[in-house]
Design goal:
Blueprint lengths: L10 H18 L9 H6 L4 H24 L5 E6 L4 E9 L4 E14 L2 H8 L13 E13 L6 E12 L5 E12 L5 H16 L5 H12 L1 E2 L4 E2 L3 E8 L4 H13 L1 H12 L6 H20 L2 H8 L5 H4 L20 H10 L7
Antiparallel strand pairs: 1-2, 2-3, 3-4, 4-5, 5-6, 6-9, 7-8
Helix pairs in contact: 3-7, 3-8, 5-8
Length: about 350
């Protein structure tokens, strides 16, 4: 009779257990537990849907903690919601803080069937969609944020990174990523503009030096308020329908962009959050916010898509709107004023990083 030593778990089993512990540890740092739940994420942990959900949860947490640390006057309300048709989200909103009038960072993970209106929007962008019995299964997830500071010398920032997957009638899947980060200052500070764009360029350059100039131009073109003849802000990067060179490389690029959010913005907030300002400067900020609202409600594709998706959460979609804004009839700033200076850049975008 041969005695045998106890057999240790196989390397594969041990690695799987270690990976599960790592998943639990990462989730412990989030603002809330992931929308899909740990069990589901573990069961498909190598799937892009799970990896993207972990990335957007991580991004939400990192940004919220950085903002709360700077503000110190208000905490984020964490609001978990469910969508009857499938999925849900986590909205984190800070209001009436010391630094931020309103700061929202939302995560959503939704699935089900696309409405005909939403499908039509995609077809208008050149997507070939093959429905089955008039239905088109989809999964969409993303992190989206708009931050409106109190001080007119601290700019507003917006970012959004998302992943979309559609299953055609023949069982094949289409997927793509989209997103971007852009800055909307009330007053122009060239040093801040250079820092912001340089940080985003460095994130893009890790993957391909052609990406930043391409996505910078796309951003300038996208955030254009046609009826005003001006951009919403001084841009950043923006891209959509990204499905190359491969799913993995596209994901790595999106991850780099998400990691650039805190370093591109928080130093600017710290630099200006205690700058003195006048009632006239506050008035100009309110007027510029009016332009922000106009773009979001009239042109923004994400807002339109959200409003066209059955069961979407209106509060989260309209979180991007500021607490306060102003529309003044025929307002024109004096020539050669600081207000006129920012308008010139909004009408004629500059290259901030050479």
């Amino acid at each position: 009779m041969v005695s045998r030593e106890p057999v240790a778990p196989g390397l594969g089993e041990a690695a799987a257990e270690e990976e599960q512990d790592e998943l639990s540890r990462r989730c412990g740092d989030f603002m809330a537990q992931p929308v899909s739940g740990l069990r589901e994420l573990r069961s498909r942990r190598q799937d892009m849907r799970s990896r993207m959900e972990m990335l957007i949860m991580e991004t939400q947490s990192q940004v919220c903690r950085a903002l709360a640390h700077v503000d110190r006057g208000a905490a984020f309300t964490v609001d978990r919601w469910e969508r009857k048709e499938g999925g849900g989200g986590i909205s984190c909103v800070l209001q009436d803080g010391n630094i931020f009038e309103k700061a929202g960072v939302n995560v959503s993970v939704v699935f089900g069937h696309l409405s005909e209106e939403a499908a039509q929007q995609m077809r208008s962008r050149g997507k070939t969609l093959k429905t089955k019995n008039g239905k088109l299964p989809f999964c969409a997830m993303g992190v989206s944020s708009v931050i409106h500071p109190k001080n007119p010398h601290v700019p507003t920032i917006h970012f959004n990174y998302r992943y979309f997957e559609i299953e055609n009638a023949d069982g094949t899947k289409q997927w793509w990523f989209g997103g971007g980060t852009d800055l909307t200052p009330t007053y122009l500070n060239e040093e801040d503009a250079v820092h912001f764009h340089k940080t985003l360029k460095e994130a893009c350059d890790q993957h391909n030096p052609e990406l930043y100039p391409k996505y910078k131009k796309w951003c300038d073109d996208y955030f254009y308020i046609k009826h005003r003849g001006e951009r919403r802000g001084i841009g950043g990067i923006f891209f959509d329908d990204l499905d190359s060179p491969s799913k993995e490389e596209a994901f790595q690029f999106v991850q780099s962009c998400a990691k650039a959010i805190v370093p591109c913005y928080i130093p600017i907030v710290k630099k200006h959050s205690h700058d003195p300002f006048t009632p006239e400067e506050k008035l100009w900020q309110q007027l510029r916010r009016g332009r922000y609202v106009e773009f979001n409600l009239v042109y923004d594709r994400g807002t339109k898509f959200g409003l066209a998706t059955p069961g979407s959460r209106i509060e989260s979609i309209l979180m991007s709107l500021p607490l306060t804004a102003r529309w003044q009839y025929m307002h024109t700033p004096p020539e050669k004023s600081r207000e006129a200076e920012i308008l010139e850049v909004l009408r004629n975008p500059k290259d901030w990083v050479h």
